[in-house]
From TrEMBL:
InterPro entries: AB_hydrolase_3 (IPR013094), AB_hydrolase_fold (IPR029058), GDXG_lipolytic_enzyme (IPR050300), Lipase_GDXG_HIS_AS (IPR002168)
UniProt protein name: Alpha/beta hydrolase
Domain called Alpha/beta hydrolase fold-3: residue spans: 69-270
GO molecular function: hydrolase activity
Native source species: Labrys miyagiensis
Length: 310
């Protein structure tokens, strides 16, 4: 049974859907996506320049400075930013005990596929130039950002470049052709991400490119040689089959895969970090999975306690 706190995410998408259909201006509590997330505390944020974009360093106190999560936000290529996702990424980095680099990319009105993938690859390369080795780097993202992380890893692999130690996909948009049966199965539960809406968003960023192109929709790609992938999705979201299909495709290619489907949850419910127990549970589950892959032991809380005792 989903918690009362988790209803905030459902209400968010219902309000968004109603405003979208009516064409009216979004109320502040919807346009400001970050209101779903509580401030993590003990986390510093520092702006930096990454190419022609502003990126954001997310620095939890007592975290390992030489372990970094590159995070790309979601938003359907029409919204989302380093600021909407700042607090959620703070919770995630704090739970892992690493730094994070929250990067961005062009919206669909600024450029078309595959420009956004090129910018994601540049972000990985920029981290390496800062002295953060790929073995100490993980890639993560939600929705469109998760799709970009997978595509960027494929680009790095094809170029013979070192790959990140692991990848996290939160409600990943891995199929721009919207072929999943969950669009119909969850149509009544997920009121915003209807197939027509997703098709429209995909067409805007594709600019005429094939939606089944492997870099646009990694569920159709050869995933051999990619690093371990952890996929999290909500049981009630229409994009659920994107994660299921990618997990199946990756397993068939010999990639280590973990798929977690959370009952009663909708798209990117982890944005309710610090507010809903389901979001906090999902974040801690990923942190436990990824710490060993970064060579980290224990939790950030445990390290804090040991330093206080010392």
């Amino acid at each position: 049974m989903d918690s009362k706190q988790s209803l905030a995410n459902k209400i968010h998408y219902e309000t968004l859907a109603e405003a979208w259909r009516s064409g009216r201006e979004l109320p502040p509590e919807v346009s400001e996506w970050s209101v779903l997330t509580t401030e993590p505390g003990g986390v510093d944020y520092v702006e930096t320049n990454l190419g022609d974009k502003t990126a954001l360093w997310v620095r939890p106190k007592l975290a390992a400075k030489d372990r970094v999560m590159l995070y790309l936000h979601g938003g359907g290529y029409v919204g989302g930013s380093i600021w909407t996702h700042r607090k959620m990424v703070g919770h995630l980095a704090k739970a892992i005990g690493c730094y994070a680099l929250l990067a961005t990319y062009d919206y669909s009105f600024q450029s078309k596929f595959p420009r956004q993938i090129e910018q994601a690859v540049t972000a990985f390369e920029w981290l390496a130039e800062q002295g953060i080795g790929p073995k100490h780097t993980i890639g993560a993202g939600d929705s469109a950002g998760a799709g970009l992380i997978i595509a960027a890893a494929m680009k790095l692999r094809d170029a013979g470049r070192p790959l990140p130690a692991a990848i996290l996909s939160i409600s990943g948009w891995h199929d721009l052709s919207a072929s999943g049966l969950s669009y119909e199965a969850n149509r009544e539960k997920d009121v915003f991400f209807q197939k027509a809406t997703v098709d429209m968003l995909a067409s805007q960023v594709l600019g005429g490119a094939d939606a089944r192109h492997p870099f646009a929709s990694p569920i159709f790609a050869d995933l051999r040689g990619l690093p371990p992938i952890c996929l999290q999705a909500g049981e009630d979201e229409t994009l659920l089959d994107d994660s299921r299909a990618l997990a199946d495709r990756a397993k068939a290619a010999g990639v280590e895969v973990r798929l977690e489907v959370f009952p009663g949850m909708l798209h990117s419910f982890q944005m309710m970090a610090g507010r809903a127990p389901e979001a906090d549970d999902a974040i801690e589950r990923f942190a436990q999975w990824v710490r060993p892959k970064l060579g980290l032991t224990g939790t950030a809380a445990a390290r804090s306690e040991s330093q206080e005792v010392a």
